[in-house]
Amino acid sequence: MAAHLRSLAVAALLAAALPATAEEMRVVDVQVSGTRAVPLSVTPSQVNVSDGKCLDVKMIPRNQLLLSGKRIGQTELMVVDANGKTIRYIVNVVPPYDGLAKKLGVLLPGEQVKLDGVGNSLVLTGTVSDALVAERIRKLAEAHLQGLKQEGVQVLSLLRVGGRQQVQLRVKIAEVSRSALRQMGMNVWHRANDGTRSIGLTAPGTNLGTTLAPDLGPTGSLLQPGGSTNTPTGANQPPVPLLATPFSSGAFGLLFATNGTTTFPLSIAVNLLQGKGLAKILSEPTLVAHTGHEAKFLAGGEFPVPIPQALGQTSIEYKKFGVQLTFTPLVMAGGQIQLKLGVVVSEKDQSGAVTIQGTTVPALITRSSETTVRLKNGQSFAVAGLLQDRIESESSKIPLLGDIPIVGMLFRRTSFRRSESELVVLVTAHLVQPLSPGEVPPLPGEDELSDPSSLAFFLFGTTDPQARDTRKSAPAGPVGYSGEP
């Protein structure tokens, strides 16, 4: 009996130590300048709001509370009934988005977008058809919240783009240059064998040569530059000078000169040239990039350029040349791909080189194109083309004499040059995805062994590559990694 009484006393003490009321906690979101009715499971006798500037609370029929958001933030609402039961609400006043959701449904039907408010941010989640649609939704959300910028409201986009989002770009750059050249000119010089007179005809810009024709006389007279002589008139005369050719570079020259003791001392220089040139450049770079991200490619090199600085210092800057490719893909709905593309084809040109502090720096011949196009998966587009035809003709002649047929060629110098250039840039875009381990094709030269065995090299003289053993053993366990959590 005594033990039973002691148990009852302990139970009474424990009951006195426990709280007399139970407390519940709930979370409610209310939009700014919006209202929300919250039903109550009890009849409230007291309602307390910790921050009246953030939230306004009113009692409405059917045992409900009407919450009105006044300012973005978080506050606490406590409801107490007549029995002392407490219900605690954490109320988040978030940016408004109900009106925006209806506008998105009208302007962009079919897009799966969910709007939520977190703190002072409007969060966009869901899956859209392409990155351009995601950008439009973000701009619409920013315009919708334009009046709340002073409160620091921002848009946080967590939208995902469905479908394949990696683009492979294949660019074909073909350039063909053709040139044709024809030149004709003649220089003639005569001096009397007694040294009393000289006569000649030279093309513009050419003078008497300082190199003399070989002395064919038996006495071996001393030769003086320019055809002058220190010997008495009528003695063994030195030869007439060798004339410079009418064209200083590029043309073949025919030279003829006689000794000064011949009956008719003569020196002739003739240029006759017909030339053709052909140059072909074909480049096909391939590059893969994720949608919305820029990718760059350079097939060429860099050469140093000295840059003079203050106090006699010199820095080095490197200039790129070759084939440079830059593109930014944007995958859109319906399998369309929008490409922002830049192509530069350059080569060094020594004809325009300059010398900086003793270093010869070549010039660059550059062809560039920058454009934005839209095409579907697998389609091709010629984004740039150039057809250039240049003709240069030059003629120098003696009036009247240079117009005489056949004979007039002795009294004129003519040059004709024609150059043609064609350039085409063709792009092809594909939507791609990574290859599985078993789908990777063999690399060029992967099945070849470049070095022959010592026996084959020394005894048989074999230098050809040998085939490798293409049988590859499979790994014993799983390989690779997974990006999924």
- What proportion of the residues is helical, as a percent range? under 10%
The number of distinct β-strands equals: 23
Structural class: mainly beta
What's the multimeric state?
Answer: single chain
Q: Please, what is the average pLDDT? A: 76
Give me the number of helical elements. 4
Sequence of secondary-structure elements: HEEEEEEEHEEHEEEEEEEEEEEEEHE
Task: Describe the protein.
With about 475 residues, the chain is mainly β. It contains four helices and 23 strands. Strands 11, 12, 13, 14, 15, 20 and 21 form a seven-stranded antiparallel sheet that branches. Strands 1-7-6-3 form a four-stranded mixed sheet, with no helix packed on it. The radius of gyration is 46 Å and the shape is elongated. Residues about 1-20, about 215-235 and about 480-485 have low confidence and may be disordered.
